[in-house]
Amino acid sequence: MQSFISNNNLEFTILSQEGKQCVIQFTITGSVRKANIDNIRAGKVRDLYQKTSYGVGWLGEYERTGYHVQAQQLWRNIIKRCYTDDPKGYKSKGTTLDPRWHCFADFLRDLPSLPNFTLWLDKKGYQLDKDIRVPGSNVYSFETCMFVTEFENKQAGKLNKRLI
Q1: What is the per-residue pLDDT for 87?
Q2: How many CB atoms neighbour CB 66 within 10 A?
Q3: Sign of CA dihedral 150, 136, 138, 118
Q4: Looking at residues 89-105, what average pLDDT do you find?
Q5: What per-residue confidence (pLDDT) applies to 90?
Q6: How far is CA 13 from each of CA 32, 44, 51, 135, 156, rounded to the nearest angstrom?
Q7: pLDDT value for 131
Q8: Which of 59, 86, 114, 132 has the least CB density, counted as fewest CB within 10 Å?
Q9: Alpha-carbon distances of 88 from 40, 80, 85, 91, 155, rounded to whole Å
């Protein structure tokens, strides 16, 4: 099998080819996907399971929705807040993201089931909160998160600071 290198320096091999359609496997993650031979030759294939968001999150395979771009921005901001030293000082000590949500595809699938999801879609000013449903929670997860207004989020933050 011949090895190739993508534009972002990831090694992969072609497992099979039928016409221009190929099945490829990435060396590091072992993930398998279909790709066009022209994109392979140009190095334009991506490993959807490579950790590309702050060394923590990966995209996974998902269907595009009317809100997937907005959701991806939210997801990246959560990862940034939890796992980087954000220059704006937003890093929350000890706050983490549920390992299931390290995969954007899983996060995207869960979003519509969170309380107030439609309000987040329809109105500006709604934020994803992790500690109103489960007071004092320090984990962003399906079980702990809900969408709330900015005002509700600030009020909850003040209350939680008093409890500490």
Answers
A1: 57
A2: 7
A3: negative
A4: 84
A5: 54
A6: 10, 14, 19, 48, 51
A7: 87
A8: 86
A9: 40, 11, 9, 8, 21
